[in-house]
Amino acid sequence: MSKLYVGSEVGQLRRVLLNRPERALTHLTPSNCHELLFDDVLAVEAAGEEHDVFANTLRSQDVEVLLLHDLLVETLAVPPAREWLLNTQISDFRYGPTFARDFRHYLSEMDNEHLATIFLGGLAYSELPIKTSSILPKMHSRLDFVIEPLPNHLFTRDTSCWVYGGVSLNPMMMPARQRETNHLRAIYHWHPVFAGQDFIKYFGDEDLHYDNANIEGGDVLVIGNGAVLVGMSERTTVQGVENLAAQLFKHQQATEVIAINLPKHRSCMHLDTVMTHMDIDTFSVYPEIMRDDLETWRLTPNGQGCMNVDQVPSYKHAIEEALNLDALKIITTGGDSYEAEREQWNDANNVLTVKPGVVISYERNVYTNEKYDKAGIEVLTIPGNELGRGRGGARCMSCPIERDSI
């Protein structure tokens, strides 16, 4: 039996969780896409076809691909999981007790395939044939969502992240994404691939309001050798980082966490949109953001259940020390400053490493891919004309659940 363990960013990738974009994208419109955290409306069929190329590229590299929709259907087949998800996603607090009861009853009669599709893809009031005495539907128009679609579930990287021998079930910053975490909580608890397996849940698996402790997987790089690199970004707070670090140290899964203070704006929403790990000593970096003077701290366990926090001169120096390297190789975004800014926006720096020195990247980022190639990195390109509109590349769209150490 293979082990649920992610030992690095660049060791051989063995198993990964993806989510093929389907019904959720059909609900994206120019008037609601920004609310749902998308900058644009995608062509649904084309996005699905591009995603299939991505999944098949991974399979061609001996990576086992798990699809979120399938896992959710199989999880809903477990009665306590189904009950928990219906009660959690259709809660009395979310809908009021009368409507929640009537709505849960309607959903509980669906088959698992249909229910998974609704949970992921959303439902409008106009599609809901139930009679209820609740005021709630009377306050909404037909086209309002009774369950909002989750188009960002495409980016499986953020919702949960595997770090060495465990997983963080991330309390997401944006309300538009918070329901995603419950799907992963149910899958990791009840799905046969995960149920009864030996792994740690560091954070985020309790029915709590995590307040200011937000963390998203796009900010978490498991660089190996017991080190974790984390960006404090638009979506990941200091409180989130310190809570995750405390749990990693408590379970003796990491020896240090390097925390970088990133600018808080959308173009560098997560650390992995401006920096990814491509080979043991090689990183791709967008230099406009990843300047040498970014404030950086090293968190280490102090042996008494607390942690030491030391500011360090630069993130590059901290990574070199953590990985015992003389010098990092940094490959910057390609092209002139206009082209580099465009390619970073189109996720040129957000590559997924499948094994040391082999990465998956959008084919549209020609200048940056050329630089990778010249630096000896093998680039497997995938189409991203539609997928890229969601502002996420191959790393964003993948959640490794099994990967070798370096």
UniProtKB/TrEMBL annotation:
Gene3D superfamilies named in the record: Arginine deiminase, L-arginine/glycine Amidinotransferase, Chain A
UniProt keywords, alphabetically: Arginine metabolism, Cytoplasm, Hydrolase
Reactions the enzyme catalyzes: L-arginine + H2O = L-citrulline + NH4(+)
Biological processes per GO annotation: L-arginine deiminase pathway
UniProt keyword Cytoplasm, yes or no: yes
Superkingdom classification of source: Bacteria
Classification via HAMAP family: Arg_deiminase
NCBIfam families the record matches: arcA, PRK01388.1
Protein name: Arginine deiminase
Organism: Vibrio sinensis
